[in-house]
């Protein structure tokens, strides 16, 4: 019995950078039988000589919504040519997001990071792959903070190998080598391994990817010594002490959180400790002292903690909707306006988790009273470090209805 072929809306054909595409017979037959094709400008230059004389081409460029509308006017299967693997930071993921009911069939090729590993005979069992192509630094920052031994990076025109190397050196990740693969599989293919400093001084072909390989381990202390931080001028004790800091980070329960606000960040010690252990979290450090901008930045570099956004301004003067909404908040300072601060942030996210460290009884009373009114559950831990005052670590968590 003949089984009818399943209808396919998009055939996703992965290609390399070869002058002559390396297609098997099934793909060649599919291409010859089709009339509607799509891909980037570079893809068209590679495949055009092999397409049927009568064909139409839909270029992938500009806004994706406009492209999808063009696709919707086509009632034939579309062959989409993509670089490498369509589901590796690829167009297949975009189609699934924007056309979730479309029927897809993939013919993948090696992605560029795989190719670079193959060509350099690199064991990539433990490879951590990230993309900064059209994205921010967060994925790379997280991989570095987590001390990943081998990192594959998809680059772009701004986040080049040189820019990557500069950022790594800025934050003290000088314990990696960098291997750059340029125009892989093409006539101008070039692969070189450099130290980071040498890489900062070189330009590379725009079509490149990178392997970062750890040469030596880099320490990552569980708890940073207080004296190691750059302090406020003449106020070395103006810092959340390490035992308090670690208990505070624990109370924030950041393992399942996405955005953390450190309000009244001072030297950045809590934000930095949190980022060290929960590298995936987007952290914003708010502080109104102008001198703290340099101090926090110096500390993030000193402790190899990239990715913390520093905002220097009076918190109450900011349009807080300009920032990602927090699901965890540490109140390190409030300028005597704790009640207002609580309600301001609560309005942004009524389910956020709040933590504060209180010395004064008035702060403790305000925190407990206001969050009790808002139907939060309050828990408290009291810690005393050496001869310093006792600190009450208060946590407010929204009660389950």
Automatic annotation (TrEMBL):
It comes from the Bacteria. SUPFAM superfamilies: S-adenosyl-L-methionine-dependent methyltransferases, Tetrapyrrole methylase. Pathway: Cofactor biosynthesis; adenosylcobalamin biosynthesis. CDD domains: Precorrin-6Y-MT. Keywords: Cobalamin biosynthesis, Methyltransferase, S-adenosyl-L-methionine, Transferase. This is Precorrin-6y C5,15-methyltransferase (Decarboxylating) subunit CbiE. It comes from Flavivirga jejuensis.
